[in-house]
Structure prediction request, 169 residues.
Amino acid sequence: MEEELSPSARRVAQALAALGAGGRVREMPASTRTAAEAARAVGCAVGQIAKSLVFQVAPDGRAVLVIASGANRVDEKKLALLLGGPVRKASAEFVREVTGFAVGGVPPVGLRTALDVLIDEDLFRYGEIWAAAGTPRAVFATTPAELARLTAGRVARLAEEPPPQPAGG
Prediction:
C-alpha cells in the first residue's frame, strides 16, 4: 500500500516503520487538515486527533513541536512556563522549513529537524488517537503511549482552562 501514498505520506510511513510503530498511514478522500475534518474523516471524537503545532521560544527562536488534543486550545502561558521563555506560534514558512511539511499535515515523526516535543496529557484519555501523516489528507492511528515513545515527548498539561462560570447562573 505504501507505493500508493504521496511522497510526503510515504516519508512518514517509512519513519513509522523505522521506529517500529504499529500504525499504518492512510490517505483519506476528504481533507484532514483541521482536527474537525480529521475526526469526521476517520470517524472519531475531535479529542482523539493529535494536532501538531510548532511554536518558537524566545529569545533564540528555537522550535518546539506541541502535540495537542484536537478538542483543546494550547495555553501559551503554560507553554512559556514549561519552556522557559515567551512563545509564539510559528509562521507557515518556518513550520515547513523546520519540519519539511506544510501546516495541516505536520506529523509527529519524520521531521526534517529533530525538535523537542510536548504532548497534551488530555490525549491519554483515549485508547486510540490519530495524527497527521505528512499531507492535509493523510493520517495514522496510534496510542498515546506509543506517540510518547515515538517522539520522546514530554507529557504536560497544555490546554487552556475554561473560564470560571459565575455563581448561580
